[in-house]
Amino acid sequence: MALVVRKVETKRERDALVNFPWTLYRGNPYWVPTLLSMKREHLDQQKNPSWHHMDGEYFVAWQGDRPVGTIAAFVNHRHNEYYSENIGFFGLFDTIDDQDVATALLETAAEHVRGRGCDAIRGPATFSTNDECALLIDGFDDPPRVLMPYNYPYYQRLIENAPGYDKVMDLYSYKFTLEGVNRAEKKFAKLLRVTELNNKRRGIVVKTLDLKNLKEEFWKLKQIYNKAWEKNWGFVPFSDEELDEMVAGLGRFFEPRLAFFAEVDGRPVAFLLGIPDMNQVLHRAYPRPGKPEIVSLLQVLWHWKVRPKLTRFRVMLMGVEEGYRNIGVESAMFVEVFKAAIAMGNWEYADGGWVLETNEPMIRLCDAFNGELYKRYRFYQRSLV
Length: 385
Description:
This protein is α+β, with helices and mostly antiparallel strands.
């Protein structure tokens, strides 16, 4: 049948956009579905605060009446202002294993942002580095951690065979296990002693968040995050609306024992935020079109609270202000999250990701804690001039 890519305008097209992954990944043992209400809200250009500084469209590829792929094409004006760039992005990229379909989707996105004056397109990003982003290129035989992407291995081939797309940056995820620490018990014991001595010498104190003033604590986190990441590749500062959205989202499954601030001489200069891997319970509940969401929610609560199945967490965010790096602050926070995980007793491992391939200090820190590089992700870019 003839292949056509159409902008999403009707309810039928919107439903195809939202529901397509359930068809594409049916039977895949690793893909993790999200709640449909959360996905619809994330894609809603009126409700998602990221769209307040973006403009773009969604597209679906059709073969007859059958949807065979999806993509978003957009311009992130905050990104372009922050970096003095003029690029667009593609995201929400899903497709059957067909080069013609993939190329048509990527060409549609490229032409859309070119029409808005962009001289390059980058992705995948849905919709920023604070959301799910990049393409999984290594680590397919394992479900994704919470807020991390998953895709079929053939996506890499399809993007790299499309005209003009080249790698621009790789991201790493590390696995940290208590067994890994135990295997290096002497090394870790020495690291604990050295960290404790360094904390005293440098005036480093690591604290958990104040639960009575959680909104203020997240505001403080935002200030540190924006300062700590300001020179990181791809970073765009949180807007106030995005911070509110993040706080509301994390509030659903926030684990205060895995969240820390680090102070130096009484001044907050760093943070580490770990969150339970809710993908474990979503994978069991398996929300899907046609299944009442209240049933999925009850199953999530059962596997989360009543008969807990959570055995892993993700170190989602970490930042240290410039001027306080490489003096032991990072190690001090890592030690505390390991101690918290040991005390809680139910964690098998933690995911530390993502880490830029160019972030050598963080890579060395992950190696020091016996982290295993177990997943890789990639951003691509294509020139449009």
